[in-house]
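Crash report, auto-generated. Payload:
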Amino acid sequence: MLIGASAVRGFGEAIYAVNPATGERLQPGFPGGSAAEVDRACALAQAAFPTFRETTPEHRARFLETIADQIMGLGESLIERVMAESGLPRPRLEGERARTCGQLRLFAQVVREGSYLDARIDPALPERQPMPRVDLRLRNIAIGPVAVFGASNFPLAFSVAGGDTASAFAAGCPVVVKAHSAHPGTSALVASAIRRAVELCELPEGVFSLLFGSGNTVGSGLVSDRRIKAVGFTGSYTGGTALMRIAAQRPEPIPVYAEMSSINPVLVMAGASAARGKAIGTAFAGALQLGAGQFCTNPGLILAIDGPGVDAFVAGAREALENAVPQTMLTPGIHAAYEQAVAALSQHDAVSTVVRGGACQGAYEARAGLFETDAESFRKMPELREEVFGASALLIRVANAAELGEMLEELEGQLTISIHMDDSDTADAAMLLPTLETKAGRLLVNGFGTGVEVSHAMVHGGPYPATSDGRTTSVGTLAIRRFLRPVCYQDMPEALLPPALRDGNPLNIWRMTDGQFDRR
Amino acid sequence: MLIGASAVRGFGEAIYAVNPATGERLQPGFPGGSAAEVDRACALAQAAFPTFRETTPEHRARFLETIADQIMGLGESLIERVMAESGLPRPRLEGERARTCGQLRLFAQVVREGSYLDARIDPALPERQPMPRVDLRLRNIAIGPVAVFGASNFPLAFSVAGGDTASAFAAGCPVVVKAHSAHPGTSALVASAIRRAVELCELPEGVFSLLFGSGNTVGSGLVSDRRIKAVGFTGSYTGGTALMRIAAQRPEPIPVYAEMSSINPVLVMAGASAARGKAIGTAFAGALQLGAGQFCTNPGLILAIDGPGVDAFVAGAREALENAVPQTMLTPGIHAAYEQAVAALSQHDAVSTVVRGGACQGAYEARAGLFETDAESFRKMPELREEVFGASALLIRVANAAELGEMLEELEGQLTISIHMDDSDTADAAMLLPTLETKAGRLLVNGFGTGVEVSHAMVHGGPYPATSDGRTTSVGTLAIRRFLRPVCYQDMPEALLPPALRDGNPLNIWRMTDGQFDRR
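Recovered output after restart:
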């Protein structure tokens, strides 16, 4: 573990990663921490907070960029360890590393640009009648130390130096990470890169700590700790809601940003299906199998307006899937859960199997699966609406756009909804759009949600239970807002005002003066 | 009650307001509603939501302005009813009415200006390597129907058409108000004004409903209703945390924006106290007594660096308070709670009485009180840190700025903290400022928090337990953000895009394109 500047060995049960491609247990073991290490990491984070949150934009931006440099500097040793711990192929992991570093660099730009501070100035109006107006200035400040839980499925991009950590650092929040037990070695390597960046940028050691823990002690201890002011989590519904409960029961409740579960409906409209059903089916099969289906945005439900085009869709999907090479899943546990869920679907009275992927060789490889059920069964049987983590999807034929709308109304919140449509489907799509907007954080046309761009306009969020808090996103620059709160300064002398709010705009950022944006 | 377009008489226990100046029970009674009325109001709100949230900015702005016009149109009948129900003097209520209408008009400007939509466009980059970028566009949409609880202490500005309602309407959310039982007649009048505005603006009836209820059925029913997506509340810690628990236990938890309790520390620094201790004491006495001290921002704690200036402060406060005319409190219940809290302070072993206001005449009049205790008792005895709702404050002399800082560290979250300082206090104030920022939503220099400007840079919020959610404000234009969530549109054809995100910027609003603000 890394507690501030100190490498610390825990006394708890050791965590060993398993290479899912070979079943081999990987050395070394990483003994878990206890309440004492949680306390120490939180105390250091708290001590680092006043300094870190008031670092200059340039200083914090360079810190983010230095982390990216240091991660790249780990070179081959990092890639090899992640491959061993995750079973994911090299190109995917090199891409994920690029994305992770790109994310850190993008947040550096956000920090330099400064509009995330939401600086606002309402100048004094001493002559106003019947009462003069005081001078009021507002900026966002960092919320406090943040606890981040690494995710299994993106061992780099949603883990130790992933999106939650990058956005919390950008906001000015120290971070305490609980490593995911599936990739402790990767976590330790990335933590060492962050630690080096802390040193190189001469920041207080408590800006970052990494903890291991196999049970719940470390995780629940972190979320309960009075010094932690927000939580970032990507994982299961069970895990996310457990953290929400702990956070709500604290003497001071704190926000939990948990990205949890989504079946990401794919709507296939009549015109699109008639014109190019087969091509949509082929493209769907590709999206379904990306990363062995272990994406939060995996397309788990297809709602297709019935017609010959749907048969073409099925033909396209079948062809692509039955020849597909099975892929190794992330962990034995995830593989077992997938096999169980798919077996349950295969044997379900209301479900027929459309196609399964080719035969497996490795012990933890998984065959993709496309299943079909009818609308009525789907509406009646909640087990059919549950997320299957992996490359499994359920197809439902519906009579028309109106029935599609009714089914959507009954769905829970989602991360994404895709619409496959042609010009002739525009009226139907327009009719459905208001429902789609209330059901998901991202709506896509003629694509699949599996690629999540890290940019300014991305929303990787959505109404409960897709996430715990649909007012936010965990990917993209808007994610910084999760870790900020506004403070108003009234009649504060120039000498005490933060630079963002001083006269003359020394940071040269966008500000709102008397309700008007400017950069004066 | 008003359920959409229908005036409905409840079958529950009738609520009668009491004129606190006379003790007289006011006619008529307002029978409370039941689960059936909650259900009907929420169903109508849900039905109105798709239309209301997509009204044009101009349409929604005119709706807000029409409400203001209609409230003014109630004229003398409104002022007389509020005076009778609250015991508040006419000038204060005319001012509060102006503020309420001004708030509605300011939100109309916010809706027209459009930057609250946070429109962002990341144009497609088809040539990008290694992967093209899709077209991504983001805007905020209204979160859904909102439940608003009227507050006792601002029967207009924080009640039926108060800040929560105005900001929710501005965001595009239908509102169901539960009236405060202290001013049912005022609530019914204001509700009729909103109802007229709904009609005049040809909006769906479910945009607004008003419910009465004396027990918890209506309130908890509203917060539990699956169609309600957020809650606005101003009131007690007990009430606010009860709503938070209900909201957290729903199948779909929702945000509760509860503004609850704050003792609003006033720091008197050494230089200021030496130079003008008496004047600060006089000004403090004025702030303490505003509205009979029934403000969430009432200055309930003075932390003064000890010295002769503090004696001058006490002299100034004593002179002003002992000659002060007692004021009528809002309700018999509030009066009783105040009397009990002040009696407990008067009799507390660790507390001495500095001064009490002049003798009372009316039954529900209250005498202001300034008490003193020592730092050690204050730190040890939690009962001394509790908010007293009314014109009571506790003075503590501290040795120096360092001790002041230690005491502030131990305080809970606050709405406001005031610093009285001169130039010679700048170094001490700068040392304290980081702590102040983490403890309160608004920091004031040489003023008191009791005036809350409705503007762009205002924050009326603060860390728990001042509010349930320190990331937001309940006063000022930033309040609109509580009722919004972001949605991302990927590769959406122009015909389906909302106007805010179309090419050519038809709404002429500020947008972020590729990370740069512009109005193209």
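Post-recovery validation: Chain A has a mean pLDDT of 96.
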